């Protein structure tokens, strides 16, 4: 495992930036160990709901975790507003960094992740394969 700290800048889309970073690093598998920071917009899909909800406010990221494959990410996040109310869910595109987001990525060079249709769930799910070093 290789640790890769990352800082996102104001205005960046959180999910796009993570996926782009993993591709630019040439990584075949990564996990977001944790992330903190602030957002001006959070787009979260709540359990059992098909479409994400958009929150527009000064938001603090309390937790951010998930897996990142070259063909996409599966991320969950909890955020709090100025009154301390907390919401969490699946991270959709459109989460915009307000001041900073600090993330620790764990790169897994011995593995390859992909997102593939799983007939049992009906969703694109994580498939994990061994990836011998040097290939």
From TrEMBL:
It comes from the Bacteria. Signal peptide: none annotated. Pfam families: PCC. Residues 1-129 form the PPC domain. InterPro entries: PPC_dom. This is DUF296 domain-containing protein. It comes from Paraburkholderia hospita.
